[in-house]
Amino acid sequence: MDVAVFIFADGIVYGAWLFLVAVGLTLVFGVMKILNVAHGALYAIGAYAAATVVNSEAFGQVEGFAVLLLMLAGAIIAAVLLGPLLERFLLRLFYERDEVVLLLVTFGLSLILEDVIKMIWGVYSYYVPGPYALFGNIEAGPLFYVGYDFFIVGLAVFVGLVTYLVLDRTNVGKVVQSVIHDDEISRAMGINVGRVYLGAFTFGVFLATLAGAFTAPMIAITPSIGVNAIILSFAVVVIGGLGSIGGAAIGACIVGLARAAAINLWPEAELFVIYAVMSLVLLVRPEGLFGQIQQRKI
């Protein structure tokens, strides 16, 4: 019984982190039909931005929960600087090209951004240890959990709910849904599709930098952390269905619980089980659990 509780707690914590990392990737694909391979590099930039702001001398006296606001500010600054720049001066040049071309463009962008990270921050590890101790420890039977991990769970739930409400319950969301359904008809109705793409991509970049910023206290920040993030994000969105926010949440929980079960019962299969679950889902439903089969336009 105790093992089941540990698996559930570990799985939910890890699944929440996975959702936080993957939600921006599935949002951008859902709106723009772009599989943004640079999402991992943007996640890494968010982590570095948070570390830079929190460790800077200008904010050295900031303590307590105000540090979380500094981390949020770092994510926002990175997204505002990079989102519009990348969409307007790079991606917009390739919208009329094949989707594979856009995939290659974002892959090249990820390599460029990783080198930019090395040029700005170097190759040595950065640490943001302070915020990780803000919430203390939580006792669960014989085990202790770091309270910050459950803060990540709450943050993931909040981000998911806000994203869902914006897309489904606001006028902005209705415009975005119209563009998702058919961008050509949306243009004919007077909707500025280019502005929708700009907003969606910038928000997707913000979700990536937000995930990186609040993951920063949990890890050693290196230029390569984005590689692991994009691989796991891809597994999550493939399981849930590309473009589905709810699917990303379910996919993250499935991956989190599967990984936790493997760690507690079969540690050697920690990584194998994630891709085994993804392969099984693809065999049964190639479009993902909540994905929709796309009809070709003639």
UniProtKB/TrEMBL annotation:
Keywords: Amino-acid transport, Cell membrane, Membrane, Transmembrane, Transmembrane helix, Transport. The chain crosses the membrane at residues 6-29, 41-59, 65-89, 101-124, 144-167, 196-219, 272-290. It is a multi-pass membrane protein. Signal peptide: none annotated. Its main location: membrane. It holds the Pfam family BPD_transp_2. It is found in: Cell membrane. InterPro entries: ABC_transp_permease, BCAA_transport_permease. Belongs to the binding-protein-dependent transport system permease family. LivHM subfamily. This is Branched-chain amino acid ABC transporter permease. The lineage of its organism: Bacteria, Pseudomonadati, Pseudomonadota, Alphaproteobacteria, Rhodobacterales.
